[in-house]
């Protein structure tokens, strides 16, 4: 149940008592908690403050001996009573917030996860609690959940029939909900664990594959981790295959975000192209909604930073017309990616036929817009350079 209450014209006219407002956000507190300094804040606001690395009270500026947040039940009841008293003015009562997990609860859930008889229900309960709040996710991690979940994944052997897909997929899905720090990422990118993830991505359920794609996006935060992930046999190919397999598009965005994260090293971009990603991405574009189109174009732009990607885009009959059509049709992000991709395939291709195909796509008038307006400098420069390349192609064609 959410804490947000509807704001009506009547409610906007009501003066909220100052002691009901959070000192950080100035909004009506929904879940008031008190710091060791005695000052009270809305839980969401103070958690964000502490999460940004601040270890002092926003009001008193005193250093905190502890970051423990104590629920202020009395103040919450007063706020709820005030809301009820003003219902006729359009104020809705704030529901009683769910309290964060306590360590004994985390320990019990993790013990149940280890037990095969209680495992599935424990997974559901743990994921439900993790989705409730950032505080719950932090406490779950502090309780040792990452190690427990990783051990369940690692207990499966890809080389034998001793493979519990259900438990493995649930463990991966739970891991994908949690904040993973550097040490945990190193543990989760060990070759044995990644081999298990690759097998799930290849032969698991659609939800299991989506869980793996989500986790891979989290793990691929630097070049070294990306290289390790990309070196696992069949992993990138299975991730690309997911784009074609997912007929209902429930995992496409997750898959695209994962590819964006993994493909920062050149070798991974080449593997992604060799796995047939360009064909799938181009054919995904025409009917893609905004978010999917932005991600698809971003992946294509990234793949065109390698020669193999540029060749694959150039050779696909639909690629250039679709890229040209997406300029100004989706969003600024999509437009930028489409322009840079067209620039890359024209800039680095010796085949003049490609430039002529770009001209035939009707992109020239759009490129003139970038040059003549106060658009972002990076894209404006790319558009100007692409115009120069296309102008030279036209001149050479006339001369011939």
From TrEMBL:
Protein name: Uncharacterized protein
Organism, as annotated: Diphasiastrum complanatum
Source species, domain of life: Eukaryota
């Amino acid at each position: 149940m959410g804490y947000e209450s509807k704001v009506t014209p009547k409610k906007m006219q009501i003066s909220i008592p100052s002691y009901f407002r959070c000192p950080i956000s100035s909004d009506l507190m929904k879940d008031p908690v008190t710091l060791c300094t005695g000052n009270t804040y809305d839980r969401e606001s103070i958690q964000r403050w502490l999460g940004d690395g601040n270890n002092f009270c926003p009001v008193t500026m005193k250093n905190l001996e502890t970051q423990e947040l104590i629920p202020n039940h009395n103040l919450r009841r007063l706020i709820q009573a005030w809301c009820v008293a003003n219902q006729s003015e359009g104020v809705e009562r704030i529901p009683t917030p769910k309290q964060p997990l306590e360590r004994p609860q985390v320990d019990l859930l993790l013990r149940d996860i280890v037990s095969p008889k209680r495992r599935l229900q424990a997974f559901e309960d743990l994921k439900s609690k993790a989705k409730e709040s950032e505080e719950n996710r932090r406490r779950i991690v502090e309780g040792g959940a990452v190690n427990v979940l990783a051990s369940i994944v690692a207990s499966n052997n890809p080389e034998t029939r001793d493979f519990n897909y259900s438990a493995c997929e649930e463990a991966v899905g739970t891991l994908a909900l949690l904040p993973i720090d550097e040490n945990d990422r190193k543990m989760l990118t060990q070759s044995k664990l990644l081999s298990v993830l690759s097998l799930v991505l290849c032969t698991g359920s659609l939800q299991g594959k989506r869980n793996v794609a989500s986790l891979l996006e989290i793990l691929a935060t630097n070049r070294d981790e990306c290289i390790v992930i990309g070196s696992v046999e069949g992993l990138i190919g299975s991730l690309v295959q997911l784009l074609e397999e997912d007929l209902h598009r429930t995992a496409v965005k997750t898959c695209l975000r994962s590819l964006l994260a993994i493909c920062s090293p050149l070798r991974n971009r080449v593997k992604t192209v060799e796995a047939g990603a360009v064909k799938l991405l181009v054919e995904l574009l025409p009917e893609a909604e905004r978010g999917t189109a932005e991600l698809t174009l971003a992946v294509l732009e990234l793949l065109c930073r390698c020669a193999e990607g540029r060749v694959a885009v150039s050779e696909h009959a639909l690629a250039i017309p679709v890229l040209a059509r997406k300029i100004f049709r989706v969003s600024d992000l999509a437009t930028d990616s489409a322009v840079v991709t067209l620039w890359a395939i024209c800039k680095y291709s010796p085949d003049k036929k490609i430039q002529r195909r770009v001209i035939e796509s009707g992109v020239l008038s759009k490129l003139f817009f970038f040059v003549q307006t106060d658009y972002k400098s990076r894209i404006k420069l790319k558009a100007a350079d692409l115009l120069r390349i296309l102008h030279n192609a036209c001149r050479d064609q006339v001369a011939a």
